[in-house]
């Protein structure tokens, strides 16, 4: 038994460099001939994303298909998604991808060579690309691909476009063919097996894709939509991920029952049937394009993900509605490609972390294709995740994952409880899953507890739970987080005098709202957090420009409510120390949102620090930023909570860059 040490000062083997260097973003993959192709991040190269490949039957080192300076990332809806596809060209697999800097689509060979542009340069006023592309799929003929196009040239339109693979549109935008009518938002283009019909979803302002979408199906004549029909969806029904079973039958996810369940539609009869009705989610929020929650296995079964606190993989018999669990050791899973009995899926393991897995559906054997964590710390330095349910004052449930401090046999002084940090996820329409996170372990292995809160408004627990936040952002999320922290104190797990809260983006809003509206917390960290609703509504990107209508109310009609809720108008009520972390190129939550809070805290003499990171957008991707943000956060807590950390304590009352 080791000597008790003050919480926060335990000798953790996990450094900030481990977190940054050891965490590689890993995206979805595909089967390409006898190879596996997948998306990987390069934190040491400014967060660049690339596509890599290796033979499926070997453990050889992967080769990089797209080299620096190309960055495989789309800006459609700003969050992008599905920015690449493997396409056969003249009998050989080629890579078609969207490049982040110019948003042009390029064609690259499987074994190197300079990528060839397929779409034209489209830089507009201010330097932003006017044409952006995502969710690339094979086209109606071998000489083209289809993609979602975001077109800023005259107003703003989105539609499905056909891009010729011969490069003729690189100099002539007229060679791009608009396949569908334009909508405010479009997603999920899917060609029928015979290539004669196209399905997709769309939605209009002020809906978000989890509020209401429509499922379209149309016949194609000369490569353009004809005889279009809306099969499902409305302003109050969210339809996601249509997939073709046959030329005459579609499967899709819908939350018409209050939960995202799966349904089938027969075109000939117009009949729809529920495939499995459970109070569980079979889909989730469509924040980025190309997300996948299930795969068509054959004409009789689907491979589906489902659950509440997390997701598991099961085989769904479409005739009986029965689920057969595959029993895989993951807390979250997202299938990306299926070939025979081989499945490529992104999955989260509490033992090995996030990564792309190759799963044999017959034997259940799993191969790690690429893991986000390049090296795992000693198991003794990793916390255990515990799903817990708490209750608010009115008895409403609140869900959370609790990570108690843990480092081998280390303990705190007798009679002392550890400080605890509430992690508040962004979105806010999103979900915290049980995970192996080095960012969490960075705290817990030093003696600081972490609780990941799924406040009302989070996904995973049905539409009614999601809509608890409707019109109540800044109220329900705060009350729920406070209820969780009070529950931890009451259970004897946390020190009620050393509670902190931190979050990014929408989570940063909850941080600032909690610090202005309650006295529960002794410290708060906001990463690129929302502070001024009016500023957000008038200075954010199109995808989220009407999001506030469901979370708060319509603007400017509800201007008084916006002013009442905005933390910036209540900074005088903040009395505890605050740390603000922000990227200077953030277009989702612009730097002004953090600067205005820093200025107000300085004017009021509240201890604080503001760190502005050059070259960072919404979410930190550069290794040096990740390291500095973590060490600064730990130094901040050391200053506030009075423990000796293995990083310098943070001097408050300053601004830095």
Please provide a written account of the structure:
The protein has 657 residues and is α+β, with helices and mostly antiparallel strands. The protein contains 10 helices and 37 strands. A 9-stranded mixed β-sheet has the order 29-30-32-31-33-34-35-36-37, sandwiched between helices. Strands 1-2-3-4 form a 4-stranded antiparallel β-sheet, with no helix packed on it. Strands 5-6-7-8 form a 4-stranded antiparallel β-sheet, with no helix packed on it. Helix 4 (476-490) crosses helix 5. The longest helix is centred in the last third of the chain and has 19 residues, at 623-641. It is globular, with a radius of gyration of 25 Å.
Cα-atom radius of gyration: 25 Å
Gap between N and C termini: 43 Å
Mean pLDDT: 94
Percent strand: 25-35%
Query: Percent of residues in helical segments?
Result: 10-25%
Short description:
This protein is of the alpha+beta class. It has a nine-stranded mixed beta sheet with strand order 29-30-32-31-33-34-35-36-37, sandwiched between helices.
List the helices and strands and how they pair.
Elements: H1 16-21, E1 26-32, E2 35-42, E3 48-55, E4 63-64, E5 84-89, E6 92-98, E7 105-109, E8 116-117, E9 131-138, E10 144-151, E11 157-164, E12 177-178, E13 185-191, E14 197-203, E15 214-221, E16 224-233, E17 239-246, E18 249-254, E19 261-266, E20 272-276, E21 294-296, E22 301-306, E23 312-317, E24 323-325, E25 332-339, E26 342-349, E27 353-360, E28 366-371, E29 386-391, E30 397-403, E31 420-424, H2 438-444, E32 449-454, H3 463-466, H4 476-490, E33 499-504, H5 506-517, E34 523-527, H6 533-538, H7 547-551, H8 559-565, E35 578-583, H9 592-604, E36 608-613, H10 623-641, E37 654-656
Parallel strand pairs: 31-32, 31-33, 33-34, 34-35, 35-36, 36-37
Antiparallel strand pairs: 1-2, 2-3, 3-4, 5-6, 6-7, 7-8, 9-10, 10-11, 11-12, 13-14, 14-15, 15-16, 17-18, 18-19, 19-20, 21-22, 22-23, 23-24, 25-26, 26-27, 27-28, 29-30, 30-32
Helix pairs in contact: 4-5
